[in-house]
Protein 1
Amino acid sequence: MGRLAPDAERARARFGAAAVKHASILPGARIGVLGSGQLGRMFAIAARRMGYRVHVLSPDTDTPTGQVADVEIVADYHDLDRVRAFARGVDVVTFEFENVPCEAAEAAAEFVPVRPGGGVLHVTQHRGREKGFLAAHGFPVAPHAIVDSAEATRHALAELGVPAVLKSADFGYDGRGQRVLRAADEVEAAWRAIGADACVLEAFVDFALEGSVVAARGLDGAVADFGFVENRHVGGILDVSIAPARVDPRVAARAREITHAVLEALGVVGVLCVEFFLTRAGSLWINEVAPRPHNSGHWSIDAALTCQFEQQLRAVCGLPLGDPSRLRAAAMANLLGDRWSDGEPDWKAVAAAPNVKVHLYGKAQAKPGRKMGHLTALAAAPEAALADVLAARSRMARSGGATPDALP
Ligand code: AMP
């Protein structure tokens, strides 16, 4: 066992894992991570910096997380015996993406605390359940219907009107498994293309801006957030985040308030992100909830007193949360595999910007749409950070692309 506080060691010896639920898990202890992508990697770096050991389980090898973890276990999430053995070797389990099967979280919870708990996974890994939960708790969500056939979709579309967005209920992220419907005769093809048993049909939101709040809730119930951040998506995938969002402070305050309430309602111990649409009329609607650190919070690694990954570590270990204050304005730009199409990018040209930080995730193969890394620029104001990060990203291309991307 890794190092627990002495009273926790005694409690575990007498009563097992359940008794250490409320004890702090201290540096030297072993953290188990289910999932091995870039979020796990950045979490593992934060954990190792604080002297924790990191074990990761996923079906893959030489993964972004495995490369920086102490132990990389290759197993299917459905192989519950392997998951149990994994859990027996650590002091707490967390996950880095919400599509880990709930059974895996439950199997791990037989031995050690799993944070956030399996119940949070259950709600957030299914769009229908998530929307139902949010609506039932009075949170603002776009008008929607849960549908289980093309015919049901046609009926719901007649109610909601066009355009509308059809999204698979399961395993959706980064705009995958979705189709915009602009006419009733598009339903059949969209239903077939998505190929899911259940979908959510949602009114198309003519938003003025997309934004998100990443926040953490500790074991003691304390909540801390990273403020309202402005997000720009391209093709359904996050492209750029700007912190702070350039909005009326009352909108930002309301987004933070809603996010705190979501954390409370779900009883999260860990980090959670709420993604919002800001409508042209000034209302905030929740688009999606992710019970983990989020791409739109990556800027916090370089520009906040405590980053989202350290905050996740503190929360899941039962430590007090850190101060999430932003130290400077920041802008983050994702680096998708498309930017490798002409070979390895010109890193020296990117590094020429002294206020830009390069983060690469250790993925061997660059594929279109694959998140390979990100850049974060720090500046005195969000506009300057945005201009600098886009200029730095433009310099990646060896084929002379010196023009910055268009400013949003
Ligand atoms: P999602 O995977 O649901 O977060 O969707 C990815 C992106 O697609 C969002 O960030 C939006 O840019 C866009 N999108 C999703 N749902 C809607 C909607 N109901 N109305 C307008 N745009 C949407």
Protein 2
Amino acid sequence: MSKSTSDQTVRNPSDTPAFGSILERNLSRRAVMRGGLCALAGLGAASLAPWAARAGQAESGVTLGFASLPASMTDACVVPPGYVAQVLGAWGTPLNDQARPWDPDGGNSAQDGLNATGMHHDGMHFFALDDSASEGLLAVNHEYIDQQALHPQGPTQPDGRRPAEEVRKEINAHGVSILHIRRQQGRWEIVPNSRYNRRFTSATPMMLAGPMAGSAWVRTPFSPDGTQVRGTNNNCGNGTTPWGSYLTAEENWANCFVNRGERAAHQRRMGVSDKESRYHWESAAGDPSEQQGEFARFDITARGSDASQDWRNEINGFGYLVEIDPYDPDSVAVKRSAMGRFAHEGCSFGTPQAGKPLAFYMGDDARFEYLYRFVSDEPWDPADARRSDRLAVGAKYLDRGTLYAARFDEDGSGRWLPLTPQAVGKDGRRLGEIFGGLDGIILNSREAADQVGATPMDRPEWTATHPINGDIYLSLTNNSKRDAARGANPANPRLDNVNGHIVRWHDDSGSDAFAWDLFLFGSPAGAPADVNRSGLTELNQFASPDGLAFDPRGILWIQTDNGIDGGRKNEVARRINDQMLAVVPQALSDRQGSGPAIGPAEQAALRRFFVGPNEAEITGFAFSPDYTTIFLNVQHPSNWPAYDSDDATVAAQGKVRPRSATVVIQRVDGGKIGV
Ligand code: FEO
Ligand code: CA
Ligand code: CA
């Protein structure tokens, strides 16, 4: 999330202590108790055996082999010496002959857009074809749009109504692209007209599965039985599954809708406006070309006698993780409602263990919203990793299970709190009584988490699972509203967390307990020690960590998004563009000492690998299986890429219509990235 979709309003009314105050007390305690192992006591005796075994486990031994980059603020990307960076699949790149080439004057049609890459690239994943390191399917999210860049002169609304063609063009620029890509002579390219190339947009029909499917909440004139939804929206971060499918996360979907009547509590909590929608798509309703209320559905005001007469339930089909099988071009995407309904940022799964349930971790990116875990009912069968009916495997593990919200405790322990009908809320009532069954709990995931006393967090973004030791990492991007909103400890500037930090924990899918510690604090290099707790220097200062991904070697890649507050409002953002850093973490269970895991003594461990062009966020991470190529996304640049070169490090000449794009990074010598 960033810039035009940002929503800084605090809507969480919970009085449960927020993560900032828990963290402050935890850091004070650590200083007294010394040593992360204190926290392990919180897991209880039953959980200690796996910990003891893990503490002696060898780590990957990988070391970073590049020098940290200096700051940069230009209209170009920067990579370390010996690396090259190529622009791939920039917004509007045709996937087939149905689309005309991208028009630098903004003149492409909605139909072109349906057959080309979307805008504002975000989460992504590389799915190898036949285990190849040089050919595969790149799934790329398109989070939102820049209306100014999309249309020749920006959006229009003559006589108060958006033209249908403009609205369709915007709808088609959202969603997900599946790109068949291959490497030839060291260059990656999209395979034109491949049968794998496809687009999912904000209008593509998809299935709804899990507790919401068929419920009264999701019945619409389009889907009277409540099993289908049109479109996926505002696809931010991503996840994958152990069986090789893609998960795309619906984040800031709420303000694509307007409810001019009485808004339900969950609509107010999500930020649905009673005045106007973000893009006014509903204003095109009644156009002679409109099909099945394709525009009207964005106005969810209850006007008819019931849900068959209006679009009141349309919005209830959004806010989910959506599973896509990129390998099957004929497959229909499925919204997995059992995994909760909120501003989904992304999803990572815990290390699968045969015979044990699978666990998935998910952030809800809004101020003071929660961290969630979904645990499957079905124990993991490793044979399912090799099945080709991936969405059937998805139904097995993702449609039945338990959703939890996290409570962090100051002693370094934590608890996953189940959001089940039987769970008892703060007022002594069961969640089933309050929300009316599991479908009502899912619909009101945030409110259910309030009830059980989950810990309000500082905008939880991506999660990432350490490939060797199974620790889970979470970026808490920033929260400059902390003091004003909560009245918490205004004397301590650290609590006004404008720079963000990364927390991590370890748990077991069979247990509700976890142990956590603080991995890394964002900060300007010159800040006082109680702000710059990780001792960052000019060569690795960062703020607003957002994208987070481990590669299988144990390198953690950290991406930043400082755009949220409308520009360069923190000190780091005034000194450097958004960036990607790399670090090789040691295990949480091996911790000694009282501060964050990365402190002043570990500065060589955290290195800046990439700096983006002006005003762009860096997000999304993928790699080829041989580690010789990594992919990242440059989102919402202001004046990039260059028109006459696909070299991402070349600055544009003059002022160009900007295009979000994937950047492909390789070594000149063809070696492995980062080492
Ligand atoms: Fe789409 Fe929370 O970033
Ligand atoms: Ca963000
Ligand atoms: Ca993000």
